[in-house]
Specification:
alpha+beta; Elongation Factor Tu (Ef-tu), domain 3; NADPH-cytochrome p450 Reductase, Chain A, domain 3; 10 helices
Length: 223
């Protein structure tokens, strides 16, 4: 198979979650490791409706294991919004935690929510680790409500168009510390640089650009 690439095209790369984050996920939900392979079926009261077709190419046909779902499907580094705390508040039984979730969901708690989530770029996994007692009460199917699916990241093609399998992409590795001295790592860029071994299969898709070279070039003719 050959690839026909043009100037302006980009490569969409699907990363996998860092192994340490997958471990933390199963530390929170240890029983999920023993669950038999299952089919993901959307329910009427769930926000998510369908699984993006790309994941069937990345994960293979269903049934899937929670190992596959936690590694490839869920974006454990996503930044949660208000809806995540509505879900947490629904299942919380500890009065103090429930009060905190309700505060984050109300207009009077916007500043507290910003300081807790946006300022340090706190991830959904870190929120669950902060409230392990509440996390333990969340039914497995609601984890798909709470944690969004992994999104592909687009990278510019740095190699000239060739009819080959060889593609070079330009990647700026994201790695920095927040004002809380917590290290942040780019979900895809850091994974490509430090967790993706040579020879490892990576899910990529070509995103066609809007610019195309003209098939004919018009110009002045000699009299």
């Amino acid at each position: 198979m050959t690839l026909s690439l043009f100037s302006g095209d980009a490569i969409q790369v699907y990363a996998e979650n860092f192994s340490e984050n997958v471990k933390s996920f199963f530390d929170l939900f240890p029983n999920l490791k023993d669950v038999a392979p299952f089919f993901l079926v959307s329910e009427p009261d769930m926000r998510w409706v369908t699984i993006p077709p790309a994941f069937f190419k990345l994960c293979g046909p269903q049934p899937w294991t929670w190992e596959t779902v936690a590694t490839k499907l869920l974006d454990l580094q996503s930044i949660p919004g208000v809806y995540a705390f509505q879900v947490l508040g629904h299942f919380a039984q500890d009065p103090l935690a429930k009060e905190k979730f309700e505060e984050y969901c109300g207009p009077e708690g916007l500043e507290s929510l910003y300081n807790y989530i946006n300022r340090p770029r706190r991830t959904i996994l870190e929120v669950l680790l902060d409230f392990p007692t509440t996390a333990a009460l969340i039914p497995p199917n609601y984890l798909l409500e709470l944690i969004p699916f992994m999104r592909p990241r687009a990278f510019s093609i740095a190699s000239p168009p060739k009819e080959t399998h060889h593609i070079e992409i330009l990647v700026a590795v994201v790695q920095y510390k927040t004002n809380l001295k917590t290290e942040r790592k780019g979900t895809c860029s850091y994974w490509l640089a430090h967790h993706c071994d040579i020879g490892q299969k990576v899910g990529i898709f070509v995103e066609k650009g809007s610019l195309r070279a003209p098939t004919q070039v018009s110009g002045l003719q000699n009299p």
